[in-house]
Amino acid sequence: MRPLAPIGLFALLALPLPWLTGSGTVLNLATMVLMLATLGQAWNLLGGMAGQFSFGHAAFFGTGAYATAILQIRLGLDAWTGFATAVLAAVAMGALVGFASFRFRLRGSYFALVTLAFAEVARILANSLEITGAGVGLLLPLAPGLDRLQFTDKAGYYWFALVLCTAGLLIAARIRDTRLGARLAAVRENEEAARALGVDAFAVKMQAIVWSAGLAGAVGAFYTQLFLYLDPHIAFGPQVSVEALLGPIVGGTGSIWGPLLGAAVLQLLGEATRALTGGVTGANLVAYGIVLVLIVRFFPDGMIGLGRPRALDARGVSG
Amino acid sequence: MLEPSILTASLVHGLANGAVYALVALGLSLVYGVLHIINFAHGALLMAALYGVYFLVERLGLDPYAAIPILVPAAGAAGYLLHRWVVAKASRGREEAVLLVTLGIALVLENLAVALFRSDTRTIETGWAFAMVAVGPALLPAAKLAAAAGALLAVALLWALVRATDLGRAIRAVAKDREAARLVGIDVEHVFALAFAIGTATLGAAACLLLPTYYVSPQVGHGFVLIAFTIVVLGGMGSFWGAFWGGLLIGVVESLGGLFLGESLGQIGIFAIFIATLLLRPTGLFGRAV
After folding, report:
1. Which of A4, A246, B102, B125 has the largest count of CB atoms under 10 Å?
2. Which residues from B are below 8 Å from A128, CB to CB?
3. Is A143 an interface residue toward B (CB < 8 Å)?
């Protein structure tokens, strides 16, 4: 097992940020980076480690977000119970999507399409059902306090996000360093060969999607606590699924640090475009799209792979 | 409760929509059949084409149908260049890379539209578009009928193009075996880009047919992407007539779903079909076994 020291070091270095900066903008940005890094890490557990590209991670994020909101609003439960339930609900959703897809051996583009469809079904249901507040959405009452997981200052949310991000890194490192990681890598590189060697591809992919969905659900619950408002588009819209995969793809799917690097680069790029264009809506996403195409074109291993020899493509041509 | 005439009217509406869906899906299916890639930017390209029609109508005062001879070649040329310069270069044939690159293109197009035109929903005034025509028990807007007829015509022309021209023969040869096609002297990269171009050209035609009874907004492509994917998967990826019949079927399902479950929840029927097909019969109803 590789030492977990780098993760501990990261958490330790990131911890004092709220004391070092008085700027709310910087803290907000850092919180967003950590949140999106964790969502990206969730995607990475399935997309990067197992090679199963999901285009519908909003299904898990939204399930977590709605689960805690519904529990708190409709049943009056505390936010911690809500959070735990959110993770479990997302895990159940992950198991459902995973069982349906992997049982029927969907992969590649087919898997991407079916995950996208599951997220859309969830969005339509949230838009129609009464328990989710339909199109109007759900508003959590403002009630700061640790039992409600609501904080009066930005630092509270920052540390909350830091805990999630660190947890994501630990999960990713743990999977990478155990047999599960090796089996997932085998399935990713060549599923037939992995099967032939006795890897139960279905079982390991199920484990990957369950971890992935649970983590994404935790991020969804965090989102609910941070913004105290949800609607079907925010929770299950395609932009969530896109955000989930952008970070790891840009940062690099081969490493547990890729999603964090990608999230940081994209958020800074987003800020830069906003500043350059004077805050034109959509300009940051145009930049993300261009970066996505350029990364796939020039650095298929992501930014973290910059120093490494390039992987061979389908025709055996180097980068 | 439900009168048969309402049901028939709903069916007619569904078939009329379905004909346009079929045209949109055929573009996607053709690209899949030849290039074996899933073009996630298909909806965003339709959105761009819809804006094209919108400005031709609003700025130049053109009739939306008179815009067809302008928009179809323009969309085709854009598709050709997009494939040659972006999709082919960036993806180098890897399946996941194609998904990501076309997703990137969709992001750029959609958000350029947001940046340039804001998220407003725009419609055009044609005066006659909502004149009603009776088709059996159904009252259809004239433009919807025209769109359905135009879409059927476009499907027929596309079929003729694929079946009876040299280009069509080259396309089918490349679809069947790209290496063999290369050996007999076909410029495969050129044919790839042409197939992609035909795919976007169908969107140019679809946009002109749609806009009189529809609207355009930066997100308008979303709905079509999933509908088109559903149709293509249902009909069998790459199958011409599969996409055609699938389009009509999905139009009817959407219409009946809306009738029984309401506008919003009615969409569920489409996705249920989508997921069920992907899971149970990923080769589609008309597809060959892979």
Report:
1. A246
2. 262, 264-265
3. no
| Spatial CA neighbour of A208 closest among A197, A200, A219 | A200
The nearest CA of chain A is from the CA of B110 a distance in Å of 8
Residue B73 CB partners (closer than 8 Å, separation 6+) = B201, B204
pLDDT 10s digits, A160-203: 999 999 999 999 999 999 999 999 999 999 999 999 999 999 99
Q: Look up the ipTM and state it.
A: 0.89
* CATH code linked to domain B4-280: 1.10.3470
Residue of A113, A124, A249 with shortest CB distance to B264: A124
Cross-chain CB nearest to A289 (options B107, B222, B271) = B107
Q: Does A96 touch chain B (CB under 8 A)?
A: no
Q: Where are the domains of chain A?
A: 25-239
Is B105 in contact with A242 (Cβ distance < 8 A)? Answer: no
Interface test with B, best of A113, A246, A253 (most B CBs within 10 A): A113
Residue type present at position B41: A
Q: Tell me the chain B residues in contact with residue A53 when contact means C-beta distances shorter than 8 Å.
A: 96, 99
**pLDDT number for residue A318:** 40
pLDDT in tens, A204-236: 999 999 999 999 999 999 999 999 999 999 999
